[in-house]
Amino acid sequence: MSALTFVFVINAVFALFVAECALEKANSSSSNEIRFQAKTVPNEFIVTYHSKYNTNVRISFIQRRLSKGNALKWSIVPRHNLAAHYPSDFDILHISDSNGTLIKETLSNVKAHPAVKAVFPQQYVQRWLSSNNTDSSNYNTRHLRGVPREKRVRAGNAQHVSASLHADVLWKLGITGMGVRVAIFDTGLTQNHPHFRNVKERTNWTNEKSLDDGVSHGTFVAGVIASSKECLGLAPDAELHIYKVFTNSQVSYTSWFLDAFNYAIYQKVNIINLSIGGPDFMDLPFVDKVLELSANNIIMVSAAGNDGPIYGTLNNPGDQSDVIGVGSINFDDKIARFSSRGMTTWELPLGYGRIGLDIVTYGSQVEGSDVRMGCRRLSGTSVSSPVVAGVAALLRSGASHKIDLVNPSSLKQVLVEGAERLPNYNIFEQGQGKLNLLKSMQLLLSYKPKISLIPSSLDFTSNYMWPYSSQPLFYGSTAAIVNVTILNGISVTGKVVGQPKWIPDPDNFGRFLNISTSFSSTIWPWTGWMSVYIAINKEAQNYEGIAKGRLILLIECVPIGANKSQQSEVDLPLTIKITPKPPRHKRILWDQFHSLRYPPGYIPRDNLKIKTDPLDWRADHIHTNFRDTYIHLRNSGYYIDVLREPYTCFNPLEYGVLLIVDPEEEFFDDEISSLEYYVYENGLSVIIFADWYNTTVMRHIKFFDENSRQWWIPDTGGANIPALNDLLKPFNISLGDFVGEGHFKLGDHSMYYASGTTLVTFPNNQDDVVIGTNLNDQGESVITNGKSQNLDVKQFVPIMGLFQTNLKFRQPEIIKYQRNSPVVDDNPKLSDISFDHAILKNRILLNEKNERFAEGRIAVYGDSNCLDSSHMEKACFWLLTTILDFAMNSHKSMLLENLNRISEFKQVKRKPLPMRISSSNLKKFSKVIRYIKNPNSRCEKLEWIVGTTLNISKRIELKLDSTEEN
């Protein structure tokens, strides 16, 4: 059959099919769950090199650095696998010593070799797949994206993914995946399994002797891709390369993956399915190797993660732009609750996340091959990932005449452009939409190499573009940021030529838009990025309506097989919703700048009861785990801006309230003085929702890091209470280290205090409010492992305060630091910490005179978990609304007035304030401590692109010339 005839047949067949709603069927309510644990391997380190070298060459590099003057015993760990026959870019260095200082010196010596790229600890991962009805996970490393609980299933016959995607249409045309090498990184595959007819190679990268799958997960994934019997896979004739990287005990090591990845490159596999993921996008050995795989024209498909429905929970590597990240839907075309949502959180808090999620497909109660024979059902994005991998194999095998044009970028282009947008779901939930095999096949058969963008347009009037559509822009609002992914289907490498051009639409008020961009100078491998900043200028301060325009980006690259570079233009249309500037009492500024998360630091969970989720990794943004809070505020008529800079970088006269929720970061000296000035002189109000802090509790939730021979202790508590106390000191407000937990009532409202702090000092003015309740001492429970005799005894503690500031009660202009008072626990010598903790210098409060406004108000509540969707037990949105009414309008509700216990609070014995923990590594990644000496670079300065008029006739001529050439 000729290529032209083949294209005609595909187009004709595709026209006969429309999207069908499939019924999700199941006959069991039991479901599988992933649990896992990660550890650092004692005294083992991965040494990575800038290039690949033979074994003897690599060993000589290490010998040169360690042969002289080093008393430590060391060795290179032999790796007995197929990759040992090829050059490698890493070694495993074992050091036989327990002296942490000597080990650190040795590693520094190794790093000094010019061929060495970096040194990382070897990691050990253990995973369990069990069947039950609980949903718990641990989030500190990569793991197989297993099978979360589905609350409801329906009995009936199985729904095959291959049938739902109409794969049989392609099978009848002879498109079955033949000739496509698909690598499956998982738990292996049983020999001579009856479902598979083209297993090319089974390789074992573990320390077990058996190549068989003793878990069943790897067999299931392989079945979804290529089963030829019973539960049919998508590409039954695909050439399967089975990489066993997890043992039957579900254990894996970083080095196993790196060796297996290198071998996959040498074997020239076409597609890799990776049903694993984790939140650590800073795991450089893994991330760099994924980039190398893409650069070698290997298409990688990976699970988005099973941490939904919370936003901002995408897993790596599925959130990388060179990888196809896959989420899950059920057979009713509904987004699966467990499927992770965007945005990516790499870019926070200084920027804004990418879409991250590329596409969604079936992943709920899907049938696949069981470990020996027969079929079983599983759910999870680890199921959706092999669906897309199987589709990728079909697409590649069906476009043999265009095989040279198939690469990680071009395949992603045809997948996302062929996807069907699902109604009622936004871009962070579904990516570019539901996978459509036949349409993507049609697009690939007519494909011509090109540059494209994700998203392809910015329409802030469409609900699909939530959250951009949820709040119109206006003059004075912070710039909206959209991170656009550049897909280069022409070449693995390219570059942006010059600056993007901004073309405002003269007929649609494009002149009202201020546009700025930043972008990756080099596009590699296959992808790049462009950040678009959108703001409204003064001319539109009273305008209600739409403004349009478009950005034009020029990309230069050398096409595959060519010797001469070519330039390609790509357009990004913008449609922006504008509203008149709202009044100050309707405007809230959300403090994102003072949020820290994992990675890179050990920022612990905010809810101490949730032991299975030990790290704070969801970014604490109003569009991630505080999304429900954001929606409530918008529904209440408020406009919310996000502060990505210090307090010295915003105009306080624009906002009624600065909302500080769960801050882990320190504060600059001038932030503290500026905030005091804003409150007293500019009438800005401040609302704080804090979290627990207790250094003894922090030490109790530590774990041992074998590579440094040290305990890894949290860098701060749920919130950084010592830093908050510095910020609030000018107002005579402070918080303590009692960790409270428990259910209680505020009037008729049921409340739950998950893991909160309490008030220690508060102004004693007649009109102020302090509210308390009886809570459990959760800190003592954690410290004693629940064995304390006093656990049933609740204590009355103050948890909330409302303060109306007044100039006559203002603190002195200069508050001198008491040098004989320690600011770090266990370290009374200030000189020992003054360099590392530069932020703890004297606080000099400035008092400049300016236009007078009514003094602002301050409200403090000790627990943010009731606003955080991560593990919310009782929402307190009503309380936030009540506090906002006080902060914005000076109105105290009758409920809060009646609950006022300030008279009792005056008699409470004051406790010492909590201090910073001496072991904190906050200085390594704190934006404040690292940049305290460079105040001029703290505030973002955007350069707006001067709009240009498009020469219409010239662009028409260019398009005509291009058409003639084609």
TrEMBL record:
Question: What are the Peptidase S8/S53 domain coordinates in residue numbering?
Answer: 177-433
Question: From which lineage does this chain's organism come?
Answer: Eukaryota, Metazoa, Ecdysozoa, Arthropoda, Hexapoda
Cofactor names: Ca(2+)
Q: Which family does it belong to?
A: Belongs to the peptidase S8 family.
Provide the primary localization.
Answer: endoplasmic reticulum
- State the protein's name: Membrane-bound transcription factor site-1 protease
- PANTHER family from the UniProt entry: MEMBRANE-BOUND TRANSCRIPTION FACTOR SITE-1 PROTEASE, PEPTIDASE S8
Give me the gene this protein comes from.
Answer: Dvir\GJ11587
Please provide one cellular component term from the Gene Ontology annotations of this protein: Golgi membrane
Any Gene Ontology biological process: cholesterol metabolic process
Where is the secretion signal located? 1-15
Kindly indicate whether the keyword Hydrolase belongs to this entry: yes
The catalytic activity, as recorded, is: Processes precursors containing basic and hydrophobic/aliphatic residues at P4 and P2, respectively, with a relatively relaxed acceptance of amino acids at P1 and P3
Q: Pfam families from the xrefs? A: MBTP1_N, MBTPS1_3rd, MBTPS1_4th, Peptidase_S8
Q: List, in alphabetical order, the Gene Ontology terms for molecular function in this entry.
A: serine-type endopeptidase activity
Keyword annotations from UniProtKB, A to Z: Autocatalytic cleavage, Calcium, Cholesterol metabolism, Endoplasmic reticulum, Glycoprotein, Golgi apparatus, Hydrolase, Lipid metabolism, Membrane, Phosphoprotein, Protease, Serine protease, Signal, Steroid metabolism, Sterol metabolism, Transmembrane, Transmembrane helix, Zymogen
Q: What is its EC number?
A: 3.4.21.112
MBTPS1 fourth domain ranges (all copies): 582-806, 853-896
Active-site residues per Swiss-Prot or TrEMBL entry: 186, 217, 382
UniProt membrane topology term: Single-pass type I membrane protein; Single-pass membrane protein
